[in-house]
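Structure ticket #2291
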Amino acid sequence: MKQTRNRPSILAGSARWIVLGVFAIMMLIPMYTMVINAFKPQKEIIENPLLITPQSFTFDYLWAAITSSRFNVIAAYGVTLLFVVLVNLFCILLSAPVAYVIARGRSKWHLGLLLLFVTGLFIPGQVTLIPVVFVLRVLGLINTIPGFILFETAATLPVSIFLFSAYLRTVPRDIDEAASLDGAGPVRAFWTCIFPIMKPVIATMIVLNSIGVWNDFVSPQIILGPSSGIYTVTTGVYAAVGQFSTDYTQVFPTLLLAVLPALIFFIIMQRHIIGGLVAGATKG
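Resolution: structure written out below.
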């Protein structure tokens, strides 16, 4: 009876792993195709796009993409990294205090403010691009770095405030009361006592925001524009490859160079994503 009773659970577990394995393979096929074709000549890419051909394996195409005059990958890395750092910095400075006020508030206005920010999660960023372009043009910030930083920062606020406020609700109010007894006001209490213990969720937001800004193509392409001469990794790839390019020995190595830093960063920091997202649930 015991073996019969355990058999359905074993079958369910096996089926679950099979389904997850199939989906994982489907998601990894594009990455696999990009990686192996970054080191193959044009003929091999066309004839055997999914096969590894060791006899034709070479780093020449990857080196050509690194030293290409059409796409300065080092400059693109620097520009995109600057955007990532600034967006994360402004996002934390703006969203963390707002989330603290919402989490510690008890009135319906605080709940309404949270719902207002949460609604931003359901609005695609591409929908807001056209009105944003008009606003930035009026302010004289179109085709400028400050204009792009403002847009990207605003785009990260809804999810940041939502996760920060959810995490702060699990932080005991005793910490605030102890800080006030020591003579600290709300601002000082937050930055000196509350903010340091927000490291798990802050790490999560940094990872999510960094990958989002690094991989964003539409926003920098429209807000910065080709006329500004400022290229991120994604817009630089688009400019280098070209709209009608069929030279796959240039396409795949360039794409690999664009994706590789984000992929390495995600692999190293993925445990922080899970840890930050479940921190509030485990504390509550």
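Closing remark: Residues 280-284 have pLDDT under 50 and may be disordered.
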